[in-house]
Amino acid sequence: MTRIGIIVGSIAEASINRQVANVLPGLATDEDVEFTFLEFKDLPFYDYALDADYPQVARDWKQAIADVDGVIIVTPEYSRSIPGVLKNALDWAARPWGQGSFAGKPVAIMGASIGSTATAAAQQHLRAILGHYDAPTMGQPETFFHYRADAFGADGTLQDEAQASILANFVNAAVAHVKQFARVSA
Ligand SMILES: Cc1cc2nc3c(=O)[nH]c(=O)nc-3n(C[C@H](O)[C@H](O)[C@H](O)COP(=O)(O)O)c2cc1C
């Protein structure tokens, strides 16, 4: 069984990226995969003074990442970059020094936006961060998802076939990427 964590880069209750992320597990064709959402909204601001004694919530966050074989990050673009809350969560994961949670951890990224840039700028910034972490990051398919509320049903299902096919391509490539690069698989 391959374990994949899904991180949503937004803590907004009505997050469109969470709405999109929610449909990904159902589009995976490989049945030998377990998806878990990894949540970071309770993390305080990172402060290196706490490196010697991480708060429990930060230990739990790092453990949650350690417990999966790979990660999918679905993030919005805020101010032409990733949201500050996601950067904060990544900073917690990167430390203490020498104990980075993403070293060697395969990651696939995508994002959804109603805007014309469709998260392209944010994803480039995220790739730079993940490269620094030595996380093997999926190159293709790049997925800049143009969100349309009318493509979703009231129950959260994605009813637009073309859009579902974009997400299916992404999640199935992400599964293959994690399986190829996961260092340890239970
Ligand atoms: C502070 C802020 C900055 C934003 N900057 C961008 C941006 O640079 N590019 C973009 O495509 N959308 C931008 N948006 C619009 C977001 O794409 C939109 O709010 C979207 O719903 C965010 O995703 P979420 O609902 O998953 O949080 C911004 C929104 C906020 C709140």
TrEMBL record:
Name recorded for this polypeptide: NADPH-dependent oxidoreductase
Species: Demequina litorisediminis
High-level lineage: Bacteria, Bacillati, Actinomycetota, Actinomycetes, Micrococcales
InterPro entries referenced in this protein's UniProt entry, alphabetically: Flavoprotein-like_sf, FMN_Rdtase-like_dom, NAD(P)H-dep_reductase
Any Pfam family: FMN_red
SUPFAM superfamilies: Flavoproteins
Highest taxon of source: Bacteria
Domain NADPH-dependent FMN reductase-like span(s) in chain numbering: 2-146
